[in-house]
Design goal:
Elements (H helix, E strand, L loop, with lengths): L3 E3 L3 H11 L5 H19 L5 E7 L4 E7 L3 E7 L4 H10 L4 E9 L6 E7 L7 E6 L2 E2 L3 H12 L5 E9 H10 L4 E8 L1 E2 L5 E2 L5 H6 L3
Parallel strand pairs: 1-10, 4-5, 4-7, 7-9, 8-9, 9-10
Antiparallel strand pairs: 2-3, 5-6, 11-12
Bound molecules: uracil.
Uracil binds next to α6.
């Protein structure tokens, strides 16, 4: 899993523990998801290219770095990925936003795309794919493939909790992407929930059942 960065920063781990707790309500859960996403975005963008420009401060002229290279797009996997957008936009307000909806066919268990709206120039952008839970890894892997099919070349997956099994599948299917994740959990339950995980992310964030 050479393309995985596990972010063990104490602020992320503390906030994730709060998210995991069964008594944490939807409002706090969404706030924590946003804060963790912002911190994951900080890590994911660590290697963006810079170029030097000449500027004038109130004191003197100097050379100082600004972002260079490709613009960014954030693509969220519906519906739990919606909770990660604001954290990313806090750091990169000019990012364009895309949405992908995927469900698992109950018979074949294959991921099927039911919705896809991406920025038209996605092939010219670096992409942050927002998928907070990587359970079996099949739908995240399919989402990465959809984005690649639109021509995007540099893809960073931002995830909050992954199962070991799902992360191995994602890393092996897409060794060319960069993955930033806050926690790798031991196992999956019989219903493909992450164990210990945090339950159904979408239901907890949006107060549904
Ligand atoms: N999606 C969730 O919301 N929770 C899990 O544990 C796995 C996938």
């Amino acid at each position: 899993m050479n393309n995985l960065r596990l972010v063990e920063h104490p602020l992320i781990q503390h906030k994730l523990t709060k998210m995991r707790e069964i008594d944490t309500g939807s409002k706090e859960f969404r706030e924590l998801a946003k804060e963790i996403s912002m911190l994951l975005c900080f890590e994911a963008t660590r290697n963006l290219s810079l170029e030097n420009v000449n500027i004038i401060t109130p004191i003197a002229e100097c050379i100082s770095p600004v972002l260079a290279g490709k613009k960014l797009a954030a693509v969220c996997v519906l519906r739990s990925g919606l909770t990660m957008i604001d954290g990313v936009l806090n750091l990169i307000p000019a990012a364009k936003i895309g949405h992908i909806g995927i469900y698992r066919d109950p018979d074949t268990l294959s991921p099927i795309q039911y919705y896809c709206k991406l920025p038209p120039d996605i092939s010219e952008r670096d992409v942050l794919l927002l998928d907070p839970m990587i359970a079996t890894g099949t739908s995240t892997s399919a989402a990465v493939q959809f984005i690649k099919n639109y021509g995007a070349e540099r893809i960073h997956v931002l995830s909050i909790v992954a199962s070991m099994e799902g992360m191995k599948l994602l890393c092996n299917s897409h060794p060319d992407i960069d993955i930033v994740c806050a926690a790798l959990d031991e196992s999956l339950t019989d219903y493909a929930f992450i164990n210990p995980g945090l339950g159904d992310f979408g239901d907890r964030a949006f107060g549904t059942k």
